[in-house]
């Protein structure tokens, strides 16, 4: 029973991370039909925003010493600002371009951001100590669960609940849902395109910052490539859930996280190093059976 409970918490914790990443990607895709492959670099950038060179080029100041009530909102604002700035400077000029052109632009943006961080901080991972008490275990029904896992799950549930209320009860939320369903028709009915898109990018950027904080707390390091794996899995979750379906992307993120943990727990020891191969194999099977995704919106099903 204790072992099963540990697997459940591991699956929920990892799935929460993937769900937050998939949510950030799905929001942008919903309003712009853009798969933002720079999202992983947003994650890394938000973590490195806690580090900045001082007047001495060899010295680095750590902003993680700030109190939580100041650090967390500050990082969320950095993520939102960075994402909004990328829309204004880069993606706005490609709104009427081919989706492949926007995708290439996102690759170029991510590459530029990665090399900017490389220029400032080099490729060596930097040590970060964020909230070390979150690494301590807590006992839940006899199982010893790291506090960080519990916090990650709770944060994800709160974010999902808040975003659900935002999408269903606010004007901007309703406009975002309308734009995701049919952006051209939504604009003809008076939806403010710039406002909807900027809101989607701001939320996506804040989600990237939240993921960065969780990764940095868990690993204790800031790495230029730390967002790459989450970005890849989040994109896969977006496809599995059904492109254009925000709830589907979140559900698929949890499913992939659960699959990863289950394979890790059940595969023979010599096969566990190939866990990701089994996960991606399961993804291929799902897409063969449901090429439009598990929770694709009706419009996507009709196109398929």
In short:
The chain is mainly alpha-helical and 304 residues long.
Report on the architecture of this protein:
By secondary structure, the chain is mostly helical. It has one domain (about 1-304): Orthogonal Bundle (ABC transporter involved in vitamin B12 uptake, BtuC), CATH 1.10.3470. The chain is built from 12 helices and 6 strands. It has helices spanning about 1-30, 40-50, 70-90, 100-120, 145-170, 170-180, 185-190, 195-220, 230-240, 245-265, 275-290, 300-304, and strands spanning about 50-55, 60, 125, 135-140, 145, 220.
Observed structural traits:
69% helix, 304 residues, 6 strands, two-stranded antiparallel sheet, ABC transporter involved in vitamin B12 uptake, BtuC, 12 helices, mainly alpha
Give Rg in angstroms: 20 Å
Mean pLDDT: 84
Proportion in β-strands = 5-15%
What does the oligomeric state look like here?
A: single chain
Instruction: Please count the helical segments.
Output: 12
Q: Topology, pairings included?
A:
Elements: H1 2-32, H2 39-48, E1 51-53, E2 60-62, H3 68-89, H4 99-121, E3 126-127, E4 137-140, E5 143-146, H5 147-169, H6 171-181, H7 183-188, H8 193-219, E6 221-222, H9 228-241, H10 246-266, H11 275-289, H12 298-303
Antiparallel strand pairs: 1-2, 3-6, 4-5
